[in-house]
Structures are given as structure tokens and as C-alpha cells.
Amino acid sequence: ISGNDELDDMLHLFNRMGRQLKESQDVLKKEVSEHQTAAESLRKANIILSDALVKLKRAQTQVVDSARLSALSQAAHGIEHSFNNTLTPILGLSDFLLAYPENLKDHNALTDHLRTINSAVKKAREQIDRMVEFFRPAKDLRSMPVNLNELIEQTIRTTRRAWMDRPREKGSSINVETRLEQIPVIEADQTSLCEVITSLLINA
Fold this sequence. Notes:
The structure is a single chain. This protein has a two-stranded antiparallel ribbon. The protein has helices at residues 5-99, 107-134, 148-158, 160-169, 190-203; strands at residues 144-146, 186-188. α3 (148-158) crosses α5. The longest helix is centred in the first third of the chain and has 95 residues, at 5-99. 77% of the residues lie in helices and 3% in strands. The protein starts with a helix and ends with a helix.
């Protein structure tokens, strides 16, 4: 349109507004595209992170299980050694009485033998109870009154095969010194504490 200055100016204004609007739309589309790309990258990063977290938790569980199995293995060797020592007088005296039944007529000697066997059986029962408690699954954790001094001494005896007998067979001498003081009984999970003390002994 020509010859009409106001209309011509208005058309130029609309054309300029149209161009600005198109430019704004182009900018907006670009920003939306960039946001979508960023969102997609973030989504992929979250997937990778979640997968890494799952693997990390799985690896952590395996490490804990491995440490637990190692502690249980060391304790099992110690318990086996201690249990064999407990069974020795039972087997020895019973074999002796079976081989020489005339000794059954000696009442005093027989009473002494029976007392020794009875004491060994009670000790074996205590060891079995400790074994059951020690090998109780971790998911069954429960608190109970625990005497730390007794637990430490018991664990030292149980793991003796690992820290004393085996090194001695290789020519090494290892002693464990305890400086236990009188402390109150605590509420704790005895099995977990026993595993901790076992790990400290073996690693040391």
C-alpha cells in the first residue's frame, strides 16, 4: 500500500513485530530443545548413578559377607580345636574302661573317671551353646546383657588356633596380652561383638 503514510507506518510496525515474534519463537524453540537435551542427559545420568549405587551396595554386602565368613572360619577352627581337646578325656576314659572292665570294680577310681567324663560333657555342651550363638545369622541380631571381659577372653581362646598355634608351627611366637578393667555389663549383640574382636585379633 502506498500513498497512505499512517497505514504504511502501521504495516511496517506489524512487519517488525512479526519478525520479533518469529525471532522470539526461534529462541524459545532453541531453549526448549536445549532443556529437553539437558533433561535427557540428566535422566541418563540418573540411570547410570542408580546402577552404580546398586553395584556399590552389592559390593559392600559382598565385602561384609566376606569379612563375616573369614571371622566365622577362624572361629570354627578355634572351636574345632577346643572341642577336640574337650572330647579327649571322654574318649580316652571310656576306651580305657571298655578295654579294662575290671577297673569298674574299683568304686573310687570309677567315680573319679565318671566325674572327669561328666565335667568334659558339660564343657562340650557349653561350647556347643557358644557355637550356636556365634553362628546365629546376622539378620537375627538381638541385644542381650554382655560382659565384655568374658567375651574378649572367650574369643581369644576360640581363635587361639589362628593367632598362636599356626604361627608357632611356622616358627613364630605370638602372645596376646589383655589389660581388662572392671566395667559394667552392656546391652549389645554378642555375635557381632565377637566377630569384631575376632577380626581385630586375626588382622593384628
